[in-house]
Each structure stands twice: as structure tokens, then as C-alpha cells.
Amino acid sequence: MLHLPPVIGHRGACAYAPENTLASFAKAADLGCAMVEFDVRLSADGVPIVFHDDTLQRRTNARGPVGARTLAELKRLDAGQGETIPTLAEVLGLCLARGMAVNVELKPDRGTGCATAKAALELAASLWPSDRPAPLISSFDRDALGAACEIMPAWPRGLLVERVPPQWRQLAEQFRCSAVCAHHRWLSASTVSAVTASGLVMLAYTVNRPGRAKALWKRGISAIFCDAPDRLW
Ligand code: G3P
Ligand code: MG
Question: 36, 57, 143, 171 — which has fewest CB within 10 A?
């Protein structure tokens, strides 16, 4: 069974620093986070970068699709408080240096699931030492998850969903998943017990209230994504 820490820093520690930036991951490490989650997509020139949205507007001083700009163009933008959009290589380097495990969420633009998985996982495999806990790879995108099975079969995968669908068993089998990651709002006690009884680990996102986190752990959730991980210690 997959072993995870009870709290995973969501987009780093994004309650305290601009989400998915090196400052956010450094803050997560400062707070004592054992693991962080982040979102990976491709720049126009095919470089895996860490950024949540498919457009620039919410998190930078620019507008328009992220995937239409090269890495050099993206690097000129302000991602908040003077931070830049980090590459996957930069984020993995920081996590390795600070001893944090990682959940790489593949967040491809429509139609780029396989390409995103290939670029991200080949890069990650070249950087991530085999004596460290393997990255957990998750995605809402079925093409990306399928490609992850082929490219890095030994790295654990998480079926990422908003609500656990009725066909969760088939999907978990199809993508040889070790985990199911679901929005906490939709997690009934019976769903959690069915999933965990099957040998899969359950994760819930995004929970920032300690009382809610406690209730979910009691229900059998293994790990909780949190924007302010220190609130849940
Ligand atoms: O992987 C858990 C969570 O990050 C999924 O949703 O939108 O925050 O990437 P989102
Ligand atoms: Mg995410």
C-alpha cells in the first residue's frame, strides 16, 4: 500500500506565498511539510512548467493562454510578489534539496495529455533519485494517466476526480492506480470505506479547516491537500 504523510501542501503552501512558485514550496518546507502537490503543463516550446490555470490572468501580470508562450516569454512575467513561473526542473530541485516528497499533478491543455505526461515524466525520471520516495503522479486527464502508466509504470498513480465515479474500480484498474484523490465535499463514509477496502489509498482536496480534516482522517482518508499545512498539524 502507498505510504503518504497525512498532510500534503497544496500548490506548496499557497495560503502564504503565490501558489506553485518556488517561494510557496520553500514556505511549505519551512513549515515542515513532508510532501507537496503542484500542477504541471507545457509551455509553447514544450517545457514542463508548474502553473495551475490554462490562462495567465489570475496568477500573473499578463493575459491569454499559458500554452501559447515559450518558456522565455513566461519567465518574464510576475507570478506574484516578484516570483516567476517555475519550471518542473526547478521545483523538483527545490523539493529534493528540502527533502520533500512530491505529487505531480499533470494538468495538460486539451489534447496534450500524452505529450504533457511524456515531457514531464521523462524529465522527472532524469532528476529524481531512485532512493527517494517515487513521485505520486495524478491527473484528471485520462490520456495523461494512461501515458504515465506506459512511461513510468513503477511510479504510483492517483485517479484524480471531483466525485468518485460509479466505475472507480475499473478506472483504477485500467490505470493501475494506487490512490484515488477526490474533492472532500463529495466524500461519503461509504465511498471512503469501499475505496479503502479495495486496497487503494484515498486522498481529499482541498481542506483548510482542522475540524473537517480530523473528520476525514477518522473516516479513513490517508492524506489531505491543504493550502496552509501548518493549520492541520
Ligand atoms: O490534486 C489535488 C488538487 O490539486 C486538484 O485540484 O484544481 O487544485 O489542481 P486543483
Ligand atoms: Mg492541483
Answer: 57
